[in-house]
Each structure stands twice: as structure tokens, then as C-alpha cells.
Write a structure and sequence with these properties.
392 residues; alpha+beta; two-stranded antiparallel ribbon; 8 helices; globular
């Protein structure tokens, strides 16, 4: 069985890594994409390591992006994200990955999809998963996106060139409504768990937020501690499945289980002293709240940015679970929300307004990331027909 060469770029973007492809290099029949990308990442792998592919055995290291010409006049490029599951032969094309979004503007410039002069650049990205616009701001030098710089982000060793992402009108990205049920807080009657207060919020990604104390946590637990507590993981899964149905994302628990990425689930707690994965002390005064997030059944080592932005929006919605645990001065805005997480403190901005009719609206949200191209060339994927696109 011969292997098929496929042009690709491998990138670290924020606290994620993944493969980037040109639309032109993929089969015209999109039904063939899943098999191709599963093979490239090494899924499915019952051992959970993706050793026979480019994946890293964690959801944050098992991602693909497809970039091509813009399909709308107010954008420079289209960007489609896929979350590649590890143990099953499945790709979820529904959610948005905020971290990988940091790679799209530089890719567009470096690959010649967008022509900009040296200096500050702004690339307008149409995310096809959500139908929303993202604007990436970064420096260009010698015709390429700058990589070196002094910005350090929690969870990534070293520093890099700052890149700012502005998410425009991110509310309702998954469900069509910022508050899918119309409520800042809902009481979920969860089978096997009981009644749990939760905030169901959809900004960049649909998320369900619960208080750490309500699920038997303090909020300081490490991802490994959470993952090793099988009873806890089952409780969180049950809450997520019930929330999915309440948000209108699934008709029943079985369908909700098949939608493994959204809604994300996160637990939040008031500011508390904690310890990072690197062993550094986090003091309560450095944060506005503590948070832990899961996707695809795995606790994250660093918060997904789509979840972080949804959390920042929820923090400004009066009465939400997130709003209630936040430091009081952070509830009304005026600066970025400081979120304590396993890898440190993440700052996320969200411009949230309450309209005259009482409805909440997120004007925009943003944060800074770094990114770096790690590899460019041709992947070898076996067992597939040759893609219709050409090589480099």
C-alpha cells in the first residue's frame, strides 16, 4: 500500500499544536477529508498515544485547520477547524479552537494568501465553524509573520512575538444565542447526579459552567487528579450531556454523547491560592477566579481560548455562575478577566453590554497569543486516493 504525499504545515499556536492545510491541496469531495486527517494524526489509537501519526495523545495536540480563499467579502481567508479525537475514528467540525486561530493569520501571510507590507498587519479571518469573524493583529518582517518576541504565555516555555486576536460579535457561535435558554443560571436535573446550578453560555464556543464546590472540587485540582477520579469524570460527563440537551445541541443523551466537543464543561471557583503544573505558586490576588476545563473527556493543562472567552463573557453577565464566583471588581468589566488555571494566569478581554430590553450582548473579545511554525513539507498518508490538489 503506497503512501500519498500531502503538503502541510505543523504549527504550535498558543497552547495547542496542529496541522494546517490549504483547501486547494485537499480532495474536492469533503467526505474524504476525515479519513485523510485521521490517518495524518494517527487516530484512532486504542492506546491513546497517536504514535503512528502527528498527534500527541492529548486533545490540545490533536487538531487540524484548513485555510483557503475567503467566501465572504469582509474577510481575507476562510478557516475551518477540526478536533481530531484520539481513540475513535471521529473528527468534530463543530467547535472553534481559539489557540489554533492564532496560526491562521501568519499562515495566510507566510503562504502568500494575503499580501501585506512589513510592519503591523491585520488579517480578517472567517471561521466557517461558527460563521464569525476573527481579526489577527501581528508584525510582519521581510514578508513573513514575526516569531521572536518577549511575550510569555502560561503553559508555553520561552517567549514569542505577540499576536492579538479580536473575536467580533462572538455570541451565539454554536447555538445562535448567547444564552441558549434565555437564563443566566439554569438548574439541571442530572440523572445519577441530582440538581445542579449551571450557566449555559455560547460565546465563541458553547460552554456549561458549574461551581467547583457543587461537584466536590476546590478548583485547585490538577488535570491528573481530576482525570484519575473516575466518579468525578462521570459526574461531569452527565452534567455536560444534560446541558447539551437543554441548550438544544442534542435531542437526547445518546446524541449528546456523540457530540464530544461541544458544549465544553468548566468548573469555576473564587480566587484561591494554588500551584501550577510547573510547581510555581499562584496567589489568590493574581486572579479574578479559578477555573478548570474539559473537552473530549480530558481535563486541559491550559484553558482552551474559546472556553476562556466564553468565561470572560459569562463573568460580566449578572447572576451567572461565573459572575458569582468572580472577584467583585471584575464583574462589571473595565479590564481583562484574570483566570487562574493549571498553567498560570490567563487574561481575556470581553466587551459585554446589557441592552435596553435586558438582553445581554458581547460586542467583542480578545487576547494575546504567540505562535511558531515548526515544520513545513509533505506528510505521508497511507491507504487513500491521491488528493485532487497539487503539491507545493
Amino acid at each position: 500500500m503506497r503512501q500519498i504525499p500531502l503538503p502541510a504545515v505543523f504549527v504550535r499556536a498558543g497552547t495547542s499544536k496542529g496541522l494546517l492545510f490549504h483547501t486547494r491541496d485537499l480532495p474536492a469531495d469533503r467526505a474524504q477529508w476525515d479519513a485523510l486527517m485521521l490517518g495524518a494524526m494517527g487516530s484512532p489509537d486504542p492506546y491513546g498515544r497517536q504514535l503512528d501519526g502527528m498527534g500527541g495523545g492529548l486533545s490540545s495536540l490533536s487538531k487540524v485547520c484548513v485555510i483557503g480563499p475567503a467566501s465572504r467579502p469582509d474577510a481575507d481567508v476562510d478557516y475551518t477547524f477540526g478536533q481530531v479525537l484520539i481513540k475513535t475514528a471521529q473528527i468534530d467540525w463543530q467547535p472553534l479552537c481559539g489557540n489554533m486561530s492564532a496560526a491562521i493569520g501568519p499562515f495566510a501571510v507566510d503562504e502568500g494568501l494575503v499580501r501585506v507590507p512589513d510592519g503591523p498587519a491585520a488579517v480578517r479571518i472567517h471561521n466557517t465553524n461558527t460563521g464569525k469573524l476573527i481579526v489577527a493583529h501581528f508584525e510582519v518582517r521581510d514578508g513573513m509573520a514575526e516569531v521572536d518576541g518577549d511575550l510569555e504565555i502560561p503553559g508555553v516555555a520561552g517567549s514569542g512575538a505577540p499576536l492579538r486576536l479580536d473575536f467580533l460579535d462572538p455570541g451565539g457561535a454554536t447555538t445562535g444565542r448567547l444564552l441558549p435558554t434565555g437564563n443566566a443560571v439554569d438548574t439541571l436535573d442530572v440523572p445519577g447526579v441530582g440538581r445542579v446550578d449551571a450557566s449555559l453560555v455560547d460565546a465563541s464556543n458553547a460552554c456549561v459552567f458549574v461551581r467547583a464546590a457543587d461537584v466536590g472540587l476546590t478548583g485547585t485540582e490538577s488535570p491528573t487528579q481530576m482525570e484519575d477520579d473516575l466518579a468525578l469524570m462521570q459526574r461531569l460527563l452527565a452534567i455536560r450531556l444534560e446541558a447539551s440537551q437543554r441548550m438544544g445541541l442534542a435531542a437526547n443523551a445518546e446524541e449528546a454523547a456523540r457530540r464530544s466537543a461541544v458544549p465544553f464543561i468548566a468548573v469555576v471557583a473564587p480566587p484561591t491560592d494554588a500551584v501550577t503544573l510547573s510547581g510555581d505558586a499562584l496567589v489568590a490576588s493574581s486572579m479574578d477566579l479559578l477555573a478548570r476545563a474539559l473537552s473530549n473527556g480530558q481535563p486541559h493543562r491550559a484553558l482552551p481560548l474559546g472556553v476562556s472567552m466564553c468565561m470572560a463573557a459569562a463573568a460580566r453577565i449578572e447572576g451567572s455562575v461565573v459572575n458569582r464566583v468572580c472577584r467583585p471588581l471584575a464583574r462589571t468589566g473595565g479590564g481583562p478577566l484574570r483566570i487562574g488555571m493549571p498553567s498560570g494566569v490567563l487574561q481575556v478581554a470581553a466587551d459585554v453590554r446589557q441592552r435596553a430590553d435586558g438582553a445581554w450582548h458581547v460586542e467583542s473579545g480578545g487576547f494575546y497569543r504567540t505562535q511558531r511554525r515548526l515544520f513545513e513539507g509533505r506528510l505521508l498518508v497511507r491507504g487513500l486516493h491521491s488528493p485532487s490538489g497539487g503539491g507545493r
